[in-house]
Amino acid sequence: MKVPLAALAEDHGFSGVVLVTRGAEVLVERAFGYAHIGYGVENTVDTRFAIASGTKGFTALVVVGLVAEGRLALSTTAREVLGDDLPLIDDRVTVEHLLTHTSGIGDYCDEEADPPPPPTPLLATSADYLAALDGYPQVSPPGTGFRYHNGAFAVLGLIAERIAGIPFADLVRIRVTEPAGMADTAFLRSDALPARTATGYLEDGRTNVFSLPVAGFADGGIYSSAPDFRKFWPALLGGRILPREWVDRMLRPHAERYGLGFWLPRPGLVHLNGGDHGVTFWSTHEPASGLTATLISNNHRGGGPLLRWLDEFFTKA
Question: Which CATH homologous superfamily contains domain 5-314?
Fold first, then answer.
């Protein structure tokens, strides 16, 4: 028998939101914990949270949208767009390599490094990210292996800005969130969060404001809500963000259960996730049934057993 969600959340010390829907039907809709502990502000179902690398799916949609319009190609090299910037990136690295984590470039935020990289809280503009990305030598030849990569998506953000001629945050708004009706999704400054937005908390009880960039970019850090992801997946699959033929191409496996910016954990499922200091995000959609399950958390404990509980919705016979 399935353990009740509330009991799991209490035992785990979970703070955040869980939302499960199938089409118009709401199966689970619960909020736990506090958006701001000091002021006693409780999380609600429509609270906005940072979603870390969940942002990468939006970046991929922006970039592939430019490809679909003929303004860029999957075979375009980073060097063609970057010119003399980031000279340590191999001249053979293409947009497709960057999208599929097979570029082999050095990563300014390498999650597999030992020790892990220090926090980078002062990043706020694309110029800041460009400077942070510089100085990392190529690790392996492009196209020779999958290695999850934050820096590659930050490079994609720079490429998209230069091709489109407008800031990356505006590209995401115009090309992804507005067409999908995601009114609560935007790049926010972590040091100036508006109302109805959760502050992240570390294990020692401090906020994560000194552990994350001031403002996110193409590799992570946008803020969103669980209800907005209920809107996102149907908009994506319905062709409201990109033509359906390009969506289908993005959701075909390219490397290691990964498409173009999206995880493909099992046949018939598409998934985005993210994790950072005081941030956990997980959203899975099953196009055949219309089932969507989203968890967003703002404390160090993350999802833990709640994620396993949610995954059972997709493994029932």
Answer: DD-peptidase/beta-lactamase superfamily (3.40.710.10)
